[in-house]
Amino acid sequence: MPGDYITMPVSRFAQRVLDLDISGIRKMFEGAGPNAINLGLGQPDFDTPGHIKQAAIDAINEGFTGYTAGPGIPGLRQALSHKFKNENGFEVSPEGIIVTSGASEALELAIASLVDPADEVLIANPGFVSYNSLVSLMGGRVISLPLADDLTISPETVVEMISPKTKAMIVNSPANPTGAVQTKGDMEAFAQIADDHGITLISDEVYEHFIYEGEHVSPAQFSDNVITVNAVSKTFSMTGWRIGYVAAGKEYTEQMLKVHQYVQACANSIAQKAALAAVSGPMDSVFAMRDEFRSRRDMLVEGLNSIGLKCESPKGAFYAFPEVPEGTTSAEIASKLISNGVIVVPGTAFGDRGEGHIRLSYASSMDKLMDALDIMEKVL
């Protein structure tokens, strides 16, 4: 009949979303029993310090429950500006800082403001699960950086992998999932590479205070072509409070603010007050956590090696990345352990070069870690 037309089958969902896979970490959780020992979660098992919780309670009682300025409350941005100068060795004005809903949003703002379709972004493989997916969502192309024997990114490898389409590079030190810590020389080299090739360095520094060997170095000390991403989540055991922040030069923050205003009008007002108390308050609880994580690391690494899982001692963060037994895959070992009550994450969740490894978080009590080692010894 006139006007008739044939409806072609079209997916109702965006292809860029259909192409994404559910996080390998989430898959591990879904396959575990309710009483499993969870060594898959990257979350400190300590309570948020009391003075931080009190700041949130005070904010509620004072009625500080409305929208804040989009970039964040002035006091918090000022405190973060002082933090960068005093702790990280570079200067950024409060106007160069955006308070975000966790480091997750900070990463999204950075990548969304930089990456056009077909742009290339250099990312460690294995590396944190969100990086690849966020680049893909923006239409960009991930270029995997193979890691050196010590599981760090080599500046020489970066130079080899750069092309005319390279737009950015992400560096995470201490790193998830490996616990590797880049040297000061590495960071200075990355900054120089960014300047020489006109690319932007995105530095994810959420584990900066959990270093056991080496030192934390912010590459923004050496270049203006750096976007620094951080959060109060790991440092102050505030993962559920969802406060992160991103810092960069004005030309960067102007673009990131455009995205921020539509994605998230502002970060949670009450949590911002809590974050202010965290950033401007004492660090005793942070150092206590770091010392406890070091003790757990030493015990876990010794235990893993004693049961035949070769594991180098991680220099930072709170993850171990042991090798699986020869002749097996990371997925097979992870599945076997989960079915026996220990949640771990296969290395392939962090990139195809993670094959042959599993990731264990030692942000769990010493007793649970020892119980997990007993189970792993029997199973493996």
Explained architecture:
The chain is α/β, with parallel strands linked by helices and 380 residues long. The protein folds into two domains: 15-47 and 284-379, Aspartate Aminotransferase, domain 1, CATH 3.90.1150.10; 50-280, Aspartate Aminotransferase, domain 2. Helices cover 41% and strands 13% of the residues. It has helices at 15-18, 24-30, 50-61, 74-88, 102-114, 129-137, 155-161, 184-197, 250-263, 269-280, 284-306, 330-339, 366-379, and strands at residues 37-38, 97-100, 120-125, 141-146, 166-172, 200-204, 226-231, 244-247, 319-320, 342-343, 345-346, 358-361. A seven-stranded mixed sheet has the order 2-8-7-6-5-3-4, with helices on both faces. It has a three-stranded antiparallel sheet with strand order 9-12-11. Strands 1-10 form a two-stranded parallel sheet. Helix 3 runs antiparallel to helix 10. The mean pLDDT is 94.
Task: Break the fold down into its secondary structure elements and pairings.
Elements: H1 15-18, H2 24-30, E1 37-38, H3 50-61, H4 74-88, E2 97-100, H5 102-114, E3 120-125, H6 129-137, E4 141-146, H7 155-161, E5 166-172, H8 184-197, E6 200-204, E7 226-231, E8 244-247, H9 250-263, H10 269-280, H11 284-306, E9 319-320, H12 330-339, E10 342-343, E11 345-346, E12 358-361, H13 366-379
Parallel strand pairs: 1-10, 3-4, 3-5, 5-6, 6-7
Antiparallel strand pairs: 2-8, 7-8, 9-12, 11-12
Helix pairs in contact: 3-10, 4-10, 5-6, 5-9, 11-13
